[in-house]
Amino acid sequence: MTATTATSFDTEWAAWHAAREDQLRDRLGFLSLTGLHWLTDQPERLPGVPGTWWVTDNKVFITAQPADRLSFDGAGIAGVQIVIPAEGAPGLEVRHEQRVLEVIRRTGRYAVRIHDPAAPTLAAFAGIPAYEPDPRWIVSGRFEAFAEPRTVVTAAVVDGLEHHHIASGTIEFTLGAVTERVVAFQAVDGLRILFTDATSGVTTYPAARSLSIAAPDADGSVLLDFNRAANLPCAFTDFATCPVAPEQNRLRVAIEAGEQHPRLARGQA
After folding, report:
1. 70 and 149 housed in the same domain
2. What is the DSSP letter of 44?
3. pTM
4. 221 lies in a domain?
5. pLDDT tens digit sequence for 107-166
6. Residues 151, 245: one domain?
7. Are 217 and 105 in the same domain?
8. Is residue 245 part of a domain?
9. DSSP track, 98-131
10. Domain limit, last residue, from 73, 91, 124
11. Does residue 182 lie within any of the structural domains?
12. Count of domains for the chain
């Protein structure tokens, strides 16, 4: 690698890393989460949340008075409001002053996730710890498509939940003397893998890291830049419902590249 190429690599990685940190600074993003409350079929008040909440016939019911200052879809809630979140999708937003009460559905269960721009985790955020970028962690691989996309089911960091992923095929690559084959999921601009490796639970988050991969070339060639292995939201908060890596993506090697476990770095794991 020439000095110019090395400088470009470092600059591009630094820009990617800075964009990742800026994303996490979103005042209503995952670092703003302060609670995750699972709903039942019994009307109940949630801790620190106005109104009464429950589930009936796959619909979330909210009762509130004008003084509760709850709103949905731009209108204040006065009486009964019904919201119907989609399975696995971003939640529907009920507003309470500066907070967002995100109503989600996960594996047929319903919850309210609290986003608060005054969250201590957001105020304390000081960046994402990461390994020093190193071009040797850019690895060539070969993508082999399935005859038809297939669904791969993984567990989640929350017991009893599961995630359904659309898998396009597998990617084979070699690190040192070890050849690995992982299942690759469809992504908007290419492919994505969820994986663990020998650093998981030591210096990196144990459930999974994510790696985005550009669409394969015509011959199936791909590049895996493990310097851009990214944490899922659950690495930063206990109020996320992220997937764990599929069994076939649990690598034997140590991927000493990409983002590290943020709460290990702060002594909170």
Report:
1. no
2. B
3. 0.91
4. yes
5. 999 999 999 999 999 999 999 999 999 999 999 999 999 999 999 999 999 999 999 999
6. yes
7. no
8. yes
9. TEEEEEEEETTEEEEEEE-TT-HHHHH-----BP
10. 124
11. yes
12. 2
Specify the DSSP element, H or E, that contains 5. helix 3-24
Asked if pLDDT for residue 21 goes beyond 90, the answer is yes
3-state secondary structure of 96: strand
Q: Assess whether pLDDT exceeds 60 at residue 87.
A: yes
**3-state secondary structure labels for all residues of 153-221:** EEEECCCCCEEEEEEEEEEEEEECCEEEEEEEEEECCEEEEEEECCCECCCECCCCEEEEEECCCCCCE
The two tokens of residue 42 are 């019994």
Position 79 in a domain: yes
| DSSP helix/strand/coil, 58 | coil
Domain span holding position 64:
30-124
The residues with which 144 forms a beta bridge, in sequence order, are 170
Q: What is the pLDDT of residues 234-266, one digit of tens each?
A: 999 999 999 999 999 999 999 999 999 998 855
Residue 263, pLDDT score: 84
Q: Yes or no: say if 172 and 251 are a contact pair by the CB < 8 Å rule.
A: no
Identify the domain boundary among 94, 124, 154. Answer: 124
